[in-house]
Amino acid sequence: MAGPQASQIAILGAGPSGLTLARLLRVKAIPYVIFDRDANPFASSASSPAFDGATAIPYIPPTLSNQGGTLDIHTETGQLALREAGLFEQFEAHARYDGQAFVTVDSAAQDLTRQVPGPHERGRPEIDRPVLREILLRSVLEPLDPASPGQESTAGEVIWEKKVDCVEKYEKEGDASGWHVRFEDGSVAGPFKLVVGADGTWSKTRKIVTPATPIYSGITFLQSRISQANPIYARAEEQIGRGTYFAVTGGKTMICQRMGNGSYNVYAGVPLPEKWTNGNGDILESQAARERFIREQYAGWDKSLTDLILHSDAGRSHRWPLHSLAAKDIGWESVSGVTLIGDAAHTAFTNGEGVNIGMFDALQLVREIQRCGLERLDEAVTAYEKDMFVRGKEHIESGDHLAKIFYAKDAPREVIEWLRSIGF
Ligand SMILES: Cc1cc2nc3c(=O)[nH]c(=O)nc-3n(C[C@H](O)[C@H](O)[C@H](O)COP(=O)(O)OP(=O)(O)OC[C@H]3O[C@@H](n4cnc5c(N)ncnc54)[C@H](O)[C@@H]3O)c2cc1C
């Protein structure tokens, strides 16, 4: 693998954090290589409609399609990283500012809070997760804008279908030391001067720097869809509106989000064993299974809410058991040549910040690398980690707090207080 051997920086994971890092390195003309376990999503793009900027509905490659719903991207973190990456205009072309609307209701479908964004509210627009990933992915693969002065084309490589098994120290007498990356297919890449683990919750890179491992929160999200063809769509649209509709009571939630194509993403947030399965692994597989699920989990909830799950599109649901690292585990002695960004560094109970913080990690790491230069990567990593530890710890604590109040038996009591405290 000539390309990877020539790069000094390896990024493990092509999720939003890893791709933001790659893009930022690219615009700063710093070479890198990314490895991801996924298959190349553009392998068959010759027969696929092209992604043509602002107006077209982007092609969503099949391997990127089931990545959750929509993400709100914040001014000071995710948006900032996109600006520095030269991608803000592309982001804005797909960002939904009306998606910032946020309604909270109780199990009787009675409003607790209702927030409608003003015309100048720009702080947390929504974008579909696959669209964001596609913008980032194309930005590392496609030629740089020739009109941007000073930007050499330092396209890195994304090497697909490379599932990392482990990262190993490489030391050879009289030769440069560094790190090797070993893959499950038996191949090895490297040595690299810096390995950045952007490989998410179950990072294989993490064990080089800390023994910390994610803990199951006790809550699982079951994800389903309501598409325009669904007979309940018109009623769902009237009820949910253009943003997020969040129902919470007695330790259960239901989160409905409008997607870019007008369909609705529905999460049922309920306490379930981590490896729960009803035999074939899909709780919402059939109408009978859905009815049983509603009886067991949402007894007493208003029909206008339970119908959103009962009559969501037929087909499989996706199960997201929610994990978190412990806040006390964030902070370790820097290890020469290895660091983490995004969920690999600080997986938290979902709190609407994960992607933003991962993208901001990427931005901060690149700033430090640029400041120190490739000769002083260790210094860059130590400086980056110092702030990342503070950020990561706060992120996890915020997730823990939300898990506690949203899934409390007496919810929504504290939820209302919390929403008011943040201006809802
Ligand atoms: C249900 C749910 C809803 C969420 N909603 C929001 C939200 O609204 N807003 C928000 O900001 N955050 C949200 N999050 C959190 C957010 O998804 C994560 O924080 C974010 O995806 C982290 O990005 P990442 O790039 O660090 O990791 P990931 O997105 O997990 O990407 C990791 C990448 O590494 C690759 N990879 C993993 N293991 C290996 C391996 N062994 N070898 C090679 N490649 C590997 C994967 O294929 C993937 O491409 C939500 C999370 C969940 C579960």
Automatic annotation (TrEMBL):
Coiled coil regions in record: none
Domain FAD-binding: 193-369
Organism superkingdom: Eukaryota
Keywords, comma-separated and alphabetical: FAD, Flavoprotein, Monooxygenase, Oxidoreductase
Presence of keyword Oxidoreductase: yes
GO molecular function, one term: FAD binding
The UniProt record lists the keyword Transferase: no
Protein name per UniProt: FAD/NAD(P)-binding domain-containing protein
Organism annotation: Dissoconium aciculare CBS 342.82
